[in-house]
Design goal:
By secondary structure, the chain is an alpha+beta fold. The protein has a single domain, classed as Alpha-Beta Plaits (2-Layer Sandwich). Helices cover 34% and strands 27% of the residues. The protein has a 4-stranded antiparallel β-sheet. The longest helix has 16 residues.
Length: 115
């Protein structure tokens, strides 16, 4: 079973760049844990630039429990949350997957840029 952490972040106006940098620092912190996560991803809404989502896979649920129990984790998360109006980190498990299709399957033929 796959486990992920996922955060929903509503960033304070004007703090978007600072938030991205703080999120990168949080990722560096996680990378130095005894059981670090896989690659993390931070996405920003194109319609509402203050809305962010972050997610990343972990090796096991126990790895997430250990990360949350680390004495430095609350402070690391608090620094990120301080830049937000809303901060909702959570732990999730994969319950279903759909295999993606190629771009050609969506366009009925070749990729539009191929001519």
């Amino acid at each position: 079973m796959d486990f992920y952490t996922l955060g929903v972040w509503r960033v304070r106006e004007g703090k978007e760049s600072e938030f991205v940098e703080a999120w990168r620092r949080l990722g560096d912190y996680f990378s130095n844990l005894p059981n670090p996560p896989g690659p993390g991803t931070l996405v920003q809404s194109v319609d509402d630039p203050r809305q962010f989502y972050s997610f990343g896979p972990w090796g096991s649920f126990d790895d997430i429990v250990e990360m949350r129990a680390d004495p430095d984790t609350p402070g690391a998360l608090a620094r990120l949350a301080a830049l937000c109006e809303e901060a909702k980190p959570g732990t999730f498990r994969v319950v279903a997957r759909v295999e993606g299709r190629s771009q050609a399957d969506y366009t009925g033929g070749a990729h539009p840029s191929s001519g």
